[in-house]
Amino acid sequence: MKVLVTSSPLLTHLWDVVPLSWALRSRGHDVRVATLSNFTDRVVATGLTAVPAGQPVDIDRMPQAGDGAGLDERLAVFARSVARMSGLLAPGLDEVVEDFRPDLVLHEPLELAGPMVAQELGVPAVHQSWGPAHGPRAAAALRRAAARLRERFGRPVEVRPPSLVVDVCPPSFQDPGYRLAAPHQSMRYVPFNGPGALPAWLAEPAKRPRVCVTVGTVLPGHGGLSLVSRIVRAIAPLDLDIVVPLRAEHAGQVDVDAPGVRVVGWFPLRLAAHTLDLVIHQAGPGTALTLLGFGVPQLTFPIGAERQVNAQILARCGAGRWLPHRTVTDAEIVAAVDALLSDRAYRAAAGRVAAEIAAQPTPADVAAILDQRVAAGWTG
User: Fold this and answer.
1) Which residues are within 8 A (CB) of 200 and not within 5 positions of it... i.e. 6 or more apart?
2) 248 — alpha (psi -120 to 50), left (phi > 0) or beta?
3) Helix or strand or coil: residue 3?
4) What angle do CA 125, 126, 127 make, to 5 degrees?
5) pLDDT tens digits, residue range 86-115?
6) Bridge partners (DSSP) listed for residue 2
7) Model confidence over 164-209: pLDDT tens digits?
8) For 330, which DSSP code?
9) Which of 70, 82, 114, 378 is the most exposed place for a label (fewest CB within 10 A)?
10) Contact 281/216 with Cβ under 8 angstroms?
């Protein structure tokens, strides 16, 4: 079977389709990941086969809604950025499929060109989630963006539902009312936070509660580091082991010189999750799911409308709390951290969600299901 994987040029979006892509590859299938030309090295770093299929784009230069923008404006800017990235990939995909005729297209939620190609070829389009489904207004904005993209390339404007949604969210970490109107297949979230080496400091036993503060891979370039500094300064007086993982180019921008604060190099979060008592982050779905898989309580500061959805669901399942990053006070941050570390109910709730995740079918199980369906003539 030939499988074409399409991803937007965002690290976490690529990383989330790696486990299923590798499971398909391990069954002997020809799996190729099409992405923009300046992102192929990130694909190669996952061990998968990269296919450059579009113009390069500088993600840091993509339009961003201003701090004072309303929800509709933020969603419009978000949808335009998604459409622009997909529009850069689309012409290259046409060239790819001339030689590589896929039997199945696997795509992540913000890549719109892959489903368009799958529809034209008459092959199944498998949408793999990387967190809770988008809310109704965001989903509508993405449908409009997809229709405009298809019109631009002279394709039928109708955006068909995916042939299958591979849903990585356990029952407690989703809102059933937001689910896409398409067949769903549950799959365990297996975290792939990129390649990396085991940090040496992990061998040191923690003598105090260990708290990790992170804002993921995108937000450090968009003002997220000021939030990290603010959080770390607020909780530095507490008796904690505070770990702040940052890439080398960002490390100097978090300047908090206090006992117990350790700014370390970036590492895959899954490597340290079992040693953490609490993680404070931006409500990214991959971060949330990685930690839920290890039963770790979380404090989130959602930046963006869709991360707000993640934060609310996380709080609703009892595994964490969230605070508004623009108006929160230092006292509120400290109170939330104290509560999350002292009240065992948060860790118990996170443990229940971890059990739900462990009960889901593995990527290997789902790869076998896809294999069987295509072999039986599945066209979606």
Assistant:
1) none
2) alpha
3) strand
4) 115
5) 999 999 998 899 989 999 999 999 999 999
6) 30
7) 999 999 999 998 888 888 999 999 999 998 888 888 888 888 889 9
8) H
9) 70
10) yes
pLDDT at residue 224 is higher than 80: no
Work out the angle between the directed axes of helices 285-292 and 11-26 (0-180°, nearest 10). Answer: 50
Element (H, E) at 96: helix 71-99
User: Three-state DSSP class for 30?
Assistant: strand
Q: Name the CA radius of gyration of the chain, rounded.
A: 21
Can you tell me the distance from the alpha carbon of 244 to that of 246, in angstroms, rounded to the nearest whole number?
6
Structure tokens given for 111 = 């890549």
Rounded CA separation 202/198 (Å): 8
Q: Are 87 and 64 in contact (CB under 8 A)?
A: no
Residue 288 reports pLDDT greater than 60: yes
Q: What is the pLDDT of residue 63?
A: 58
* Confidence bin at 255 (pLDDT 50/70/90): low
pLDDT at 117 over 60: yes
Scored b (16 or more CB within 10 A) or e, 319-347 reads bbbbbebeebeeeebeebbeebbeeeebb
**Which residues, including other chains, have CB under 8 Å from residue 262's CB and lie 6 or more apart?**
201, 241, 242, 243, 244
pLDDT (0 to 100) of residue 254: 65
Q: Which pTM does this prediction carry?
A: 0.93
Residues in the chain, overall count: 380
Structure tokens, 71: 């929800």
User: What would the two tokens of residue 293 be?
Assistant: 């898989």
The 3-state DSSP composition of the chain as helix, strand, coil percent (nearest 5) reads 45, 15, 40
Please state, in angstroms and rounded to a whole number, the distance separating the CA atoms of residues 339 and 345.
10
pLDDT of residue 222 exceeding 60, the answer is no
Q: How far apart are CA 188 and CA 204, in angstroms?
A: 31
- The DSSP bridge partners found for residue 321 are 299
What residue has token string 């904690």?
240
